[in-house]
Amino acid sequence: MLTICTTCNDGQGQALLEAVENEALARDCTVPIRGQACMAACKQSCTAALQGIGKQSYLFGQLAPDAVSVDALLDVAVQHAESSDGLLAWSRRPACLKTGLLARLPPL
Hints:
With 108 residues, this protein is an alpha+beta fold. It is 34% helix and 19% strand. It is built from 3 helices and 5 strands. A 5-stranded mixed sheet has the order 2-1-3-4-5. The longest helix has 16 residues, at 12-27. The protein is globular.
């Protein structure tokens, strides 16, 4: 599941969500995507999270509603979905998700 904060940065989070949803449709991406009001990382906005049952969870920040962030989020969302444990290899992460990593949480 890819969750994007919709209240980040005066509407920029909502714009990011819409851009990701549109690109996911264009790519036939089946990863679930949802918006969430305030993910409490306001100083690092825009933010997005990856979660899955039995998988590592990630929180990314400092994202923009642009093609770079959209591509990066969809690429790692697919990686996360395909991984049995949710670990995202550092070497396979796009640059903006290497510098923008705010947290990695263990599975429940």
